[in-house]
Specification:
The structure holds 2 protein chains of 2 kinds. Helices cover about 55% and strands about 20% of the residues of chain A. Chain A has 7 helices and 6 strands; from the N terminus they run H-H-H-H-H-E-E-E-E-E-E-H-H. In chain A, strands 1, 2, 3, 4, 5 and 6 form a 6-stranded antiparallel sheet that branches. By secondary structure, chain B is mainly alpha-helical. Chain B has one domain. Chain B is built from 13 helices and 2 strands. A two-stranded antiparallel ribbon of chain B has the order 1-2. In chain B, a hairpin with a 3-residue loop joins strand 1 and strand 2. In chain B, about 40% of the residues are buried. The chains are: A alpha+beta, B mainly alpha.
């Protein structure tokens, strides 16, 4: 039974995530779908949020993001704490992402060619072209060793890394306060 | 304020109001820690390979003005929330967006000397020449910079460089962080930068350079910058509030994104 579950899980992982050559088309396709959803006047804001998140979810590795953002502290946590933290962090990230999506106002989005920075790292830049400004977003992907699939582990908005910002904030927070308090504040 | 705004502009997309409470039902259910990765919580994936990229999380940051900076951050935050933002909202209601974009373009165009000089100082001659073409085209065909045909027709994009970036380009460190009243996040290097750029900017009054400067006294100078701030914010309503939601504590958050942003600007 255990093996069957494991197999199903591995299969789900494989069907959800992205292979190297598909990174750009996959992301492009997802962006296109999300834009269509955001532009659809018949959907309520909440429907738009849920649908967009469902489309984008599979390419994000919240697990990895949570680990990196917590740094050394991660290793000192119990299994339950890790699960609780990952869940809270995932919630926070989605919340934040949804908020950013709400600022979308018919800008044009273009995706550049992916850049392989390392054997297991790829960055893909998207540009959001507005009426009088252009914003650059760098999506960083890593390759999961076990599945050979690629996931996003960080997003840089105009040169500012979201995960780095959390990492700094969590470290500063944990200097004076406890992990429990951090969990609560998320 | 300039940098707070730049950050807000850059980090947010474009403005609309955001409700405070968001209910995302599935996030609260037990079963939904990404199904795809549930197996991973149990196995011990090593993230130390990311350490090179993200560095030590506890950098012992030298922040001698921390206490003052914190107070000034809340002061600026209050000023923004209760004065600048309500004014910008009313302003946006009265003035149509295309006019506000035009004003923003024109003020940007007038700051050409800062961008040109700093591109040259960093030996970015190609960018400096593109800036020059942009300035000439937009000042004439673009009617005093109200329109940006250089961008829309010639696909020449602005190359923002300031003296703080020039100093950084030549290896000058940022120095400690300073939050300026009204202007917002800065550091020692960028304060020197702002001062030098102030001489280059035709919009900041200086008695000795009166022929070059547009404002004829400090009040006019202040007025132009205030207008610029309101106008810019009116084009990005909601962005700052949106950004702020990612903060656990406001001051360290704004300090960190400011420094990251500046480092990235200098590297580009």
């Amino acid at each position: 039974m255990k093996h069957i579950i494991l197999m199903i899980m591995i299969m789900t992982v494989a069907s959800y995530s992205v292979e190297e050559q598909n990174i750009k088309p996959t992301l492009n396709n997802k962006i296109k779908q999300v834009i269509q959803i955001l532009k659809n006047p018949s959907l309520t804001m909440k429907q738009k949020e849920n649908k967009s998140i469902k489309i984008l979810d599979p390419i994000f590795s919240y697990q990895t993001m949570a680990k990196i953002s917590l740094g050394k502290k991660w290793k000192t946590l119990s299994k339950e704490e890790k699960i609780a933290f990952t869940r809270a962090f995932e919630h926070k990230m989605k919340h934040s992402y949804i908020d950013k999506l709400k600022l979308y106002k018919n800008q044009k989005v273009i995706t550049e060619t992916p850049r392989k920075v390392k054997q297991n790292r790829i960055t893909l830049t998207t540009k959001i072209i507005g009426n009088n400004e252009t914003y650059k977003i760098i999506n960083s992907f890593f390759k999961n060793k076990r599945t050979n699939q690629w996931y996003i582990y960080d997003i840089k908005l105009a040169g500012v890394s979201i995960i780095q910002t959390y990492r700094k904030q969590f470290a500063a927070f944990l200097k004076t306060k406890s992990f429990r308090q951090l969990l609560k504040s998320l | 304020m300039k940098y707070v705004f730049t950050l807000v502009l850059l980090l947010g997309l474009q403005g609309c109001a955001i409700p405070n409470t968001l209910h995302i039902p599935y996030l609260h259910s037990e079963t939904q820690v990404s199904k795809k990765e549930q197996t991973c919580v149990i196995c011990e994936d090593d993230t130390s390979e990311f350490d090179d990229e993200f560095g030590e999380e506890e950098t012992n940051l030298y922040d001698p003005l921390e206490a003052y900076n914190e107070i000034m951050t809340s002061f600026n935050d209050t000023l923004f929330t209760y004065i600048l933002n309500p004014i910008s909202q009313k302003y946006a209601y009265v003035i149509p967006e295309f006019m506000r974009i035009g004003i923003s373009n024109a003020l940007h165009n007038l700051q050409f000397p800062i961008r040109f000089t700093n591109n040259v100082l960093q030996a970015k001659f190609h960018n400096a020449s593109e800036e020059t073409v942009r300035f000439l085209v937009n000042s004439t065909i673009g009617i005093g910079g109200l329109f940006d045909p250089a961008n829309t027709q010639l696909h020449l994009y602005p190359h923002k460089e300031d003296f703080g970036q020039t100093l950084g380009y030549y290896g000058v460190g940022s120095g400690f962080h300073v939050v300026l009243p009204v202007l917002g996040a800065s550091n020692l290097r960028d304060i020197v930068g702002l001062t030098v750029d102030g001489y280059l900017s035709p919009l900041i009054y200086d008695k000795r350079l009166i022929k070059y400067k547009i404002p004829q006294n400090y009040t006019q100078s202040f007025g132009i910058y205030g207008w610029d701030a309101i106008n810019k914010n009116s084009l990005h309503l909601g962005a700052y509030e949106n950004l702020k939601k990612d903060a656990i504590e406001l001051y360290p958050f704004l300090r960190d994104i400011y420094e990251q942003k500046r480092t990235s600007d200098i590297e580009e």
